[in-house]
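Notebook p. 47: complex prediction with adenosine-5'-triphosphate.
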Amino acid sequence: MITSIRLVNFKNFADETLRIGPFTVIVGANASGKSNIRDAFRFLHGIGRNYTLAEIIGGKSRSDWEPIRGAANEIIRFGQEMFSIEVEMKLDYERERSEKAHYMIEIGPDERKPGEFQIKKEKLKIESETIYIAQSDGEKLRVHGAWDKEQKEILLESNRAVPMQLIDHFQVEAVSQKVFRKLIPKMADIYFILSDMRFLELSPDRMREASFPGANVLGDFGENLPTVLEEICIDPERQEILTSWVHELTPMDVQGFDFPRDPSGRIHLRLCEANGRQVSAYSASDGTLRFLAMLAVLLGRNPRGLYFFEEIDTGIHPARQWLLLELIEKQAAKEDIQIITTTHAPDLLTFVNDSTFENMSVVCRLEDSHDAIIRRVAELPNARELRKSQGLGRLLTEGWMETALAFTEDYDEAEGDGE
Ligand SMILES: Nc1ncnc2c1ncn2[C@@H]1O[C@H](COP(=O)(O)OP(=O)(O)OP(=O)(O)O)[C@@H](O)[C@H]1O
Ligand SMILES: [Mg+2]
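Predicted complex, structure tokens below:
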């Protein structure tokens, strides 16, 4: 799992770190930079998919990938030359012992090709061991690594992250590198973590569509909802949990689900109510479908990886938000998943549990500055006491977080302004 992300000269962040837990909540005013954090995760996700920088940033020749918002022109903080992203990870997948990994990638313009980027520096450290350090010579990446005591360097392309290139390099070279073979699973772990990310932008219309048999991964817009729910319902125990949550979350008296096939074999979704009435996905409400999609994520078999939900409260009645919150907190604590969400909803904040509170951050642009800062809400002065006495929702509505930040920030204008 990812435990923190540091952004240097990425979009409107000069040098900020966000702590990440099983469930992380990001709050902040409009245009403060919350979605820019999401863009940083999407960048890392592109690395995990082994895409080139041109593909990740500009969406070049990829039909399955949207460019990063603002693409090449706006990914680097205005007025700066390069940006870097660093992540701390806990590698504990299929291992008895967990190890701490530190991955850093720095990107700048490719001087040879206007409008394109190259990796300037890249580093992977696991515990205290540096696995590799890569540095650009303007054309290629010069890589030194833990596999070679003599520090003989390897030359790799500078438009794609190192680990996969290294694995290919050693396969082609067919060098009997015992040390390197030991490193491969560790590098693969980094890729698993980075590639196992999902960015959900639920669209009720897409969720209403019938799905094809076997398409049992929920799409980013909520596609394939019928097949994913049907798979959950194969297990009576999980069907029971699913039904009881739908019961709690919506005013419908849902007793179960039905998945009829149409003549072309596509699977449809119907909700069965107590009075024998059936409601098809086509006429189910938007909020019901959103709940169902979130339940599909949280109750699916072996849920894994990191999910980024923008504005999780969208379309959900305040009186139900705390229930959704309870479900997420419960599942995130239990399963191998991490959920990051942005929100503007005071009611959601009021009901977060203590552990979520510790992983709640505020993003804020201080007056007279273009840059944004990220701070843990729990670290703001008197935050714990005020949370108890007034509730976080009220503090959000009153703009207390921004005010508290502005008071406490030892703010160096010259540096923070970026001008
Ligand atoms: N390259 C850049 N350098 C400096 N600032 C940038 C850069 N790119 C974007 N920004 C700033 O980031 C802002 C957008 O931030 P973002 O989309 O993350 O806001 P948000 O917190 O998600 O807001 P909302 O709640 O409205 O969705 C822009 O308005 C701009 O001020
Ligand atoms: Mg946003």
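Notes: The pocket of magnesium ion (ligand 2) is lined by residues 34-35 (CB under 6 Å). Residues 349 and 393 are 5 Å apart (CA to CA).
Next step: compare against the earlier run before touching the bench.
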